[in-house]
Recover the amino acids of this structure.
């Protein structure tokens, strides 16, 4: 009996020691885990600290070159107009957007869940509404900083609020594809999302390169990008526009190089093979998709044009050819399908 109790005591002591040892191991693992978490947080903070302050080149309403400096990642952003909103959504910083307005079209499907989380102003945003949001950054077009809207950027800078005006919104003499790349990359820097921004730009460039490959060894396709106004007049997107620049970079022949008004008679004389007709719905001068097509197809003076005869009047969103941002990819794809239907 005494031997039995001795064995029992030994077993109990062994069990106790094992339990204590397990507790110590768990405590050690917890300490290591907590240290790893703290280290990861410190690394992330260190990366952010090393990224800022950051200075970015942009413009004033008067088209002057200015620099804005970011001491940290923006936390309260107002984004107005299609490419401004969608570029931020593409970069994954929707949590920083406190107010948005000015869409020409519904946001792209892949951004709808993120867009649903932000405060969107259907009727636009007044200066007073923007001020009430206390933003630390406003991203928009040149026109939004006009006297009747937000006013010159100095007003906001004096209040510690940074501004960024998109390059192709009227602050430069030329509206080029490269400026869309610049905006995406600049905003990537502002939000410390440079890798994602570079990926977006690289993918667009790869798609653009396909156009030159498709065109090689062939007569260039004659093309126009037109905006059909409600009064029946036409505006051409020339080589100094994103739309016109895209036509050229995709290996086609932009038959009218100058931007501006163009008559039906001149269109008929030039006889383009493909016409991309621009539509949009946000503004008072909006042209809906079906109207953008019918205004050309039903025009008596254009019945002899190859693009009309061969059913090559193709709708394209304004957001794909003007201040296009991440929608530049959609514009490229729309044009490749229209210019090279057999190859693309």
């Amino acid at each position: 009996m005494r031997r039995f109790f001795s064995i029992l005591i030994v077993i109990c002591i062994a069990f106790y020691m094992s339990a204590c040892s397990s507790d110590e191991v768990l405590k050690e693992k917890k300490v290591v885990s907590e240290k790893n978490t703290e280290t990861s947080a410190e690394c992330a903070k260190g990366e952010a600290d090393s990224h800022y302050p950051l200075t970015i080149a942009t413009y004033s309403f008067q088209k002057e070159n200015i620099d804005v400096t970011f001491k940290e990642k923006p936390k309260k952003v107002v984004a107005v107009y299609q490419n401004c909103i969608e570029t931020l959504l593409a970069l994954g910083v929707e949590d920083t957007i406190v107010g948005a307005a000015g869409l020409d079209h519904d946001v792209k499907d892949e951004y709808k869940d993120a867009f649903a989380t932000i405060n969107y102003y259907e009727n636009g945003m007044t200066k007073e509404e923007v001020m009430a949001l206390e933003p630390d950054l406003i991203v928009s077009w040149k026109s939004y900083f006009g006297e009747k809207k937000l006013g010159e950027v100095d007003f906001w800078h004096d209040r510690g609020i940074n501004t960024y005006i998109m390059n192709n919104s009227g602050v430069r003499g030329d509206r080029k594809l490269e400026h869309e790349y610049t905006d995406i990359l600049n905003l990537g820097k502002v939000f410390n999302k440079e890798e994602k921004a570079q990926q977006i730009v690289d993918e667009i460039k790869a798609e653009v390169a396909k156009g030159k490959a498709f065109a090689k060894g062939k007569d260039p396709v004659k093309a126009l990008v037109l905006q059909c106004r409600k009064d029946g007049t036409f505006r051409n997107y020339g080589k100094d526009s994103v739309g016109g620049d895209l036509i050229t970079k995709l290996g086609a022949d932009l038959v009218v190089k100058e931007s501006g008004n163009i008559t039906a008679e001149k269109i008929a004389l030039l006889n383009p093979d493909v016409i991309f007709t621009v539509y949009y719905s946000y503004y008072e001068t909006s042209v809906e998709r079906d109207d953008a097509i019918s205004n050309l197809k039903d025009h008596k003076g254009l019945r002899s044009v190859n693009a009309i005869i061969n059913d090559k009047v193709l709708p394209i969103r304004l957001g794909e050819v003007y201040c296009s941002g991440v929608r530049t990819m959609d514009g490229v794809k729309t044009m490749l399908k229209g210019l090279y239907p057999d190859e693309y």
Observations:
- Residues 209-339 form a domain with the Rossmann fold fold (CATH 3.40.50.1980).
- The mean pLDDT is 89.
- The CA atoms of residues 39 and 45 lie 10 Å apart.
